[in-house]
Amino acid sequence: MSLFETGPVLMTSGIRELIYSDQKATDTVQRCLDRHCRGDWGNLDKEDKQLNQNSLADEKERGFTYDSLFSSYDTDFGKIYVITECDRSVTTIMLAEEY
Predict the structure, then answer these.
(1) Which of 30, 40, 53, 56 could lock onto 35 through a cystine, CB 3.0 to 4.6 A?
(2) Is 3 part of any domain?
(3) What global pTM score does this model have?
């Protein structure tokens, strides 16, 4: 269950190539998305994790927010970012080098 609306989940071409090449990569990418949706922001510093928490609190209190949600995960396939836009209209999964 997600703590927030994700909108459609999109992936970049790098993630698409990765998941088509290796089933373990597919499972890893899915785990990253699941963690993001649960509010496990991965390998962010304390301040960036707090920004995400503040954005969720603002959304709950006011019904809207001006901040995106960002997660970073170190995986066997490289660093993977998951970003949900501030209006929660879309979530994108990408390799760090595609950011």
Answers:
(1) 40
(2) no
(3) 0.96
